[in-house]
Design goal:
single chain, alpha+beta, GMP Synthetase, Chain A, domain 3, two-stranded antiparallel ribbon, 5 helices, KH_dom-like_a/b, OsmC/Ohr_fam, OsmC/Ohrsf, OsmC family protein
């Protein structure tokens, strides 16, 4: 009789990271090695938007009432910070699980101040985030020194923080035709 017990750590199948890495290595330049991510953002009313991602998840967007919105969804700034936090959480859990570190809890608080004075033309400058700060609160079955060392090694492998820390080509195409379905 064979033992079909699946061993997990932190909710991930043991050695899944190695299996994924091998699939990426074999895929060369395909959809596993270099996946295309898309979202579709539809304006609803006022500053309200509905964002649909490929998985089918729906995100509501809006602006605070302070800026003319209705407080019925996440702001673009909050969505960006959430993307950073989600990416780091996945990177950290994946990396720590790969080396056998059990994590009891992980919380990432991501914050940053945006220059709306520049965004609204009150002053010259960049209208985006002036800086972004991440506080990581982790309880794991390992010493602080080892956890700190591991997380610092993992940080450069996180795609979303990497994307915002370096110049990335950005383009916008404007069309006046009917909507295009990204998922056809």
């Amino acid at each position: 009789m064979t033992n079909n017990t699946v061993i997990t750590i932190n909710g991930l199948k043991k050695n899944s990271g190695k299996e994924i890495k091998e699939r990426i290595r074999e895929d060369k330049q395909g959809n596993i090695a270099r996946p295309l991510y898309t979202t579709s953002v539809q304006w609803i009313n006022g500053f309200q938007t509905k964002t649909e991602v490929k998985s089918g998840a729906i995100l509501k967007g809006d602006e605070p009432s302070t800026y003319g919105g209705t407080d019925l969804g996440a702001t673009p700034q909050e969505l960006l910070l959430a993307g950073i936090g989600n990416c780091l959480a996945a990177t950290y859990i994946g990396g720590l699980s790969a080396v056998g570190v059990k994590v009891n809890s992980l919380t990432l608080n991501v914050s940053g101040r945006v220059n709306f004075r520049a965004a609204f033309g009150v002053e010259e400058g960049h209208p985006g985030f002036e800086s972004i700060h991440v506080s990581v609160f982790i309880d794991a079955d390992e010493t602080f020194e080892n956890i700190n060392s591991l997380l610092n090694k993992l940080l450069p492998t996180a795609p979303i923080p990497d994307t915002i820390m370096r110049p990335v080509p950005f383009s916008v195409e404007i069309h006046t035709s009917p909507e295009i379905d990204f998922y056809e």
